Amino acid sequence: MRDRLRIITQMPEYMKVQEKIIPVLIIGGGPVGLALAGDLGWRGIDCVLIEQTDGSIYQPRMDLVGVRTMEFCRRWGLVPTVEASPYPRDYPQDNIYLTSLTGYELGRERFPGIGQAPPPPVSPQRRERCPQNMFDPILRQFAAAQRSVTMRYRTRLLSFTQAADTVTAEIENAESGARERISARYIIGCDGARSLVRETLGIKMLGNPVLTYTTNVIFRCPHLLSLHDKGKAYRHIFIGPEGTWSTIVAINGNDQWRFSIIGNTAKQDYTTEEIKAAIRRAVGGDFEFEILSVLPWVRRELTAETYCNGRGFIAGDAAHAMSPTGGFGMNTGIGDAVDLSWKLAAALEGWGGDGLLPSYTSERQPIGARNVAEASGNLRRMLSVASHPEITDDTPQGAATRAKVGGEFSEMMRREWFTLGIHLGYRYEASPICWPDGSPPPPDEARHYSPTARPGHRAPHAWLADGRSTLDLFGRGFTLLGFGARPAEAAPLVDAARTRHVPIDFVPLEEPQIAALYARKFALVRPDGHVAWRDDRMPDDPLRLIDVVRGAVTGPGDDAWQERANAAKMA
Ligand SMILES: Cc1cc2nc3c(=O)[nH]c(=O)nc-3n(C[C@H](O)[C@H](O)[C@H](O)COP(=O)(O)OP(=O)(O)OC[C@H]3O[C@@H](n4cnc5c(N)ncnc54)[C@H](O)[C@@H]3O)c2cc1C
User: Fold this and answer.
1) Exposure on the CB side of residue 456, measured as CA atoms within 13 A
2) Which residue of 7, 35, 406, 483 has the fewest CB atoms within a 10 Å radius of its CB?
3) pTM for the structure as a whole
């Protein structure tokens, strides 16, 4: 793969050469690039983000901000802004399955307004409904507020080359057409599904490039609710005689709706009249509405074979392209950004070992593949309704079909609506920078999340006596939790970290219920909030442990470790 990088053309001499080498160059100002820039800035790392557009969102895609992403927003101080976004917090979030808005209801999963649902007990945050045209500006403002972040809109990456110590990119200003060369230590492609960074790095996408050709239509109709008797709901899934064929989603909880013709693997171009007819079919009659935008797009099931090559990295849709069924795409991408950010910081600050940045692929690529697969499973379930020609008939047979299809569909779709396990239960199982404790992994289930401080997992949330969450203790450096431990007992590990210039804080905790949750006397939590190590006593070789978690030496493979791991397993 490295060879492929060498054949990229030389930069022409006429271009302006920028003398200063910036630490991190981020390509793409979608939610993932913005989150990465914001988190790097929050760590005080200099970075430049370039985005080819002016940042306006014409077709908001994501709107579900998952619970883990909200935990990151908590860390960044963004929760009040997300909660204050204009999406109405009392708008019911029901998912309804129906033949048309004015037709038969087959089933419904009821959810209260987003502001009326309490956070799950396992998190200090609830998931939020904050569409992309509201969420991106929040992330943009956050990133722009960091002193070490420079954002350049209307600026496009044209190409880049890698050398031993730097990456040199050719970029173009969309307004003036002026080109310049910019050098950076690292380049991060957050440039979406058609990523130029990924292509230039020669990284292949693995999986299925076409699940469906889908057409999304944003339409405005302030009086839609008055046309039918189904009441307010977030998502409507339309099932006709041919099976599931379209959806309507309340994208701003007011006057705008996203209609999707789900389609299949055959490419289809619709005329405006055909689109209008399809919207009328879903609603169940003629009515006044205005089409604001139409976006044909391809639903994919792809994960990159690797997330990095040399000094180039990819994150977000550049690294994984998944069906939106489940609302995992951006949330997975922001997880990528948080994993990569502290590793970049460590590398630039000099305390990260050579294995730290490569561990980004080992940790995040399996999570990308997991979430891509779950999203496709959700799509398959949604489309699994067989053809029922009688489903809209006003006959006893039609009613019986509706009851059967509705019951089965309602049961099956719950897997997509309840996904705490996906958002919180991901773990870095084979991570080279976590120190396993030999305990068996809990099941990885889409619906259920079992809090555990097993190395590789998200360090669990619990409320501290002072009203903070344990999650509020983690972030800028490593945090060594000690349950009922005095600083002197934690000193070997703290001293080892300081010897290697690894930022660390020791936090003694007394709460017995948190000690029980973490299940060991000590737990070392990484800057991204994942557990790196836990044990009831200090490690025999604290420097070795620190060298493993900072990626300077490979993980514990020696006999002594293996013996202890086996003993722990048997216990
Ligand atoms: C209908 C739909 C609903 C969805 N709902 C959800 C949801 O509820 N929750 C969820 O988590 N996900 C959802 N997703 C997925 C989510 O929208 C994406 O995963 C997310 O937008 C990816 O963010 P990103 O920053 O990686 O990429 P993008 O949002 O694609 O941003 C990439 C950016 O890079 C810029 N760029 C590209 N090339 C260059 C270049 N050469 N130079 C400079 N800039 C460049 C682009 O202009 C763009 O702004 C949904 C997707 C769809 C289609």
Assistant:
1) 25
2) 7
3) 0.94
